[in-house]
Amino acid sequence: MHTEPSSTTHDTHATEATHAHIHPAPEGFVRKYVFSLDHKVIGFQYFFTGMLIMLIAGAFAILMRTQLTSPTGAIMDHNTYNEMFTMHGTAMVWLVTIPLVTGAIGNFVMPLQIGARDVAFPWLNMISFWIFPVAAVILFSSMLFGGPHAGWTEYPPISLADGTAGALWCAAIFTIGISSTLTGMNFMTTIIKMRAPGMTWTRMPLFVWATFATALMNMFATVALSVATGALFLEHVFKIPWYDPSRGGSPVLFEHMFWFYSHPAVYIFIIPAFGIVSEILPVFARKPIFGYKMIAFSSMAISLLAFTVWAHHMFPSGLAPWLQLPFMILTYAIGIPTGIKMFSWIATLWGGRIHFTSPMLYAMGFLITFSFGGITGIFLASVPVDLHLHGTYFVVGHFHYVVAGGTFMGFLASIPFWYPKATGRMLDERLSLLGFWLFFIGLNGTFFPMHWLGIEGMPRRYASYTAFAAQNPDAVFWNRFETAFAFFMAASIALLVFNLIWSLKHGKIAGINPWGARTLEWTISSPPPYYNFKEIPIVSGGPYDFEKPLPYKNTDNEIEEFPEYGKVLMPTPVLAGSGA
Amino acid sequence: MAQRIARAPNIVRVQGLGPGFWPATTLLLLLCIANSLYWLFGNIDWLLPSSSQPFSDRVYDIDGLFKFMAVFGGDIMIIVTGYVIYFCIAFRARASDPPDTVGVPIHDQPKLEFWWTVLPTILLVILTALSINVWHKIQFGVTSPGLTMEVVGHQFYFEYRYPGLKGTTTEAHLPIGVPVRILITSADVIHQWWVPELRLKMAAVPGLVQNLNFTPLRAGNFIVTCSEFCGVNHSQMQGKVVIEPVAAFNTWLDAQKTAAAAASIPIKLSGGNVAAGQAKFHQICSACHHDPPTPFDQKLVGPGLLHITDDPQHPTLVTGKPPTPQNIAWILQNGFTGSIGTMPNRQANGLSAQDIANLVAYLTSLK
Known about the structure:
The structure holds two protein chains of two kinds. By secondary structure, chain A is mainly α. Chain A has a single domain (6-14, 30-577), classed as Cytochrome C Oxidase, Chain A. Chain A has 18 helices and two strands. In chain A, helix 3 (39-67) runs antiparallel to helix 16 (475-506), helix 4 packs antiparallel against helix 7 (206-238) and helix 5 packs antiparallel against helix 6 (163-193). Chain A starts with 11 loop residues before the first helix and ends with a helix. By secondary structure, chain B is of the alpha/beta class. Chain B has three domains: 9-140, Helix Hairpins, CATH 1.10.287.90; 147-264, Sandwich (Immunoglobulin-like); 274-365, Cytochrome c-like domain (Cytochrome Bc1 Complex, Chain D, domain 2). Chain B contains nine helices and 13 strands. Chain B has helices spanning 2-6, 21-41, 57-90, 110-140, 246-264, 274-283, 325-334, 346-349, 353-365; strands spanning 10-11, 101-102, 147-154, 157-161, 171-175, 180-186, 191-195, 200-204, 210-214, 220-226, 238-244, 336-337, 342-343. Residues 1-6 of chain B have low confidence and may be disordered. Chains A and B meet through helix 4, helix 8, helix 9, helix 10 and helix 11 of A and helix 1, helix 3, strand 2, helix 4 and strand 8 of B.
């Protein structure tokens, strides 16, 4: 597969040559499932590893919420609590969110959607994946050395007190950063060079656009993180005083470098979710996505603007006053492309024929929760208001609406949507619907009250809040309320894990195209053969014109093998039954 | 393949903007008006502490901006959520639909897209103008402060310094009506000094001095809380801030000055008792200095003190000053941090003025 001459695939002559160029399937367990070069298997590997770590980091969150049911702290000492929120944040950001949306969904879906047989550099893809569990082991091994305590941001100088555990944290983040950079390069090359003939830039599915924008940020932003954590590692191990102010270092320097990556990282989380939602909404509204070009270009605009707003995380932390202004204004500006996307998605619903399937409910839940997270972001972008809200539970509420209500909601939408393509069977729809409502209610119940607790004066990263509870007697009630709803989210995830396993054997047979969707992955069998496309399809139009015939040629082989291909334009019983 | 192309889908027709569009839109607009009126005229003290009766001049500006954002942020949320729900109802698939029913095949609507780009842009330009105005006021509003207070963050307390006050306090007092400049730094790690009721927050960064400017308006007691993670007891790092009338403030500051003066000068050097000093040395100092005293280089934690007044190798004290009784007493009084390490001060060692006199007598008697 790796010998495919990617530089010439746009050339018809070369394309003909590659059609006949299908390598034999790998044999043996190790080549097939462990060190596989197949982007789909690598996607599964990211999925399993990411989900496993998500369960651990989620358990930490539940422990933290349980601790906060009492203002003095219910179940653990301060040190353990500090370790919990550090590990929860670190694992969720680098080892769950990015690997799941980019590593798992991006790897599995993107090459299928552009009609490619694999990514541009399959070996690099395999290496990128295998760096990830190594980084995870390094990170979790830090807990054996007392664990890091300074929060997922690990600001020095306080993080310098973490010793060996702090050094291991740096090593883990440095390592996973390399994986991100490599994946970014790989995906970018794949999308530029390996699109099926006729798939022009404006015929690309929106998830591919999103993956492209994400790859751009992964390539150019992650380097700053690697430098920042690399230097912090050297400071831990060799006492080189980059950041320690008592020896001439600058702690603010670390914050700049950290956020130069970690603000784009927020968009690295969310833009793939934008792509997922842009795929799902037209399929279940049975109509074209509204404003295709605006959605695609606003993804690119966001990914470029993302590099110019990092210091809005640092308004009180040592930024010259005049420097606060450009960062405030640029952050406001990022609201414009985001708003355009939101309005376009809502307009997609207008005049549709909406089927309330589980992916669609998750996608519509995303519209509401992500909007809220985006709007609270405007509050934090404003320097004067941020000088009240910085470092409070308002911030915690805001970014959980963005990450859990945005990215993770998008990820959860993608699971029932692409599970049939990945496994050949449908997820149990009733369990998925129940899971959605548990998650949606749990999410709002957990994170909504955090906003007013923060505005009233509750700082984040507090293992106990006796002083705040003494001033605000209802704080205890709201914290218990949040904890109760956190268990709803935990139940939803437990249900999802059960559903994923149970449906592997007992799910309905999916067929090629259970949703009546029109992107290329729905023109091949479920699960796809290891080479994806027997013949590379030829594309003659965009993927969202539900009223027109499919804009693909050269898919006849699959049609012979799977006579039910004619159902592509017809909603299957799964879809029709969920209407009414 | 023929079958695939031959099937003509059943395209939904929509009358106007859809069934019930205008009633739904009217309802949403009414909700938006209600939301706007609530934020503009309602009492939101439950949310923003003491918003209607501010203790600090910043509250007017910051809360005003907050309310403006809550108005349009809330309105946008109502519109987004409202239309998602309305479209779900109005454009739901029906069981009676033929199996290949598709929605209205529109791809875009340039006019609509123009307005939903331009209107939020205008809104954000207005917000930018308002924000810059408030930003300028709170950053540069105080040009000639009547009082400059310094805050130093420590694990896990804030320490305050006032002009003319030798020594520090652990409580901040501020006078009503006097423009205040607060200079903030840290002695160890990054902290954040936050008084929610006053809308005052600034990070205490070691090696960097930042400032906050404001004018206190009414008397009150507040909790200052650390809002940047600073270590194991971060959540216990609270202190007290008192705003009081100028007269009360001056009384308090004078009392602090008197107390500091009392604490900083050794009451006496005469009347020291060598035997009592030796007993104290045995009880307290022997934790870090060899007892009986040894030559300088035989260190326990601190150096040996046998030749403190007559060591040719070390003619001065660790402070670099000659070993006079006065200078020895200064170390006992204030403690000292040098290349060898840190010696705690009088309070930490629990020494009275008499103890210092006794210890000086004992130490100077050693040969």
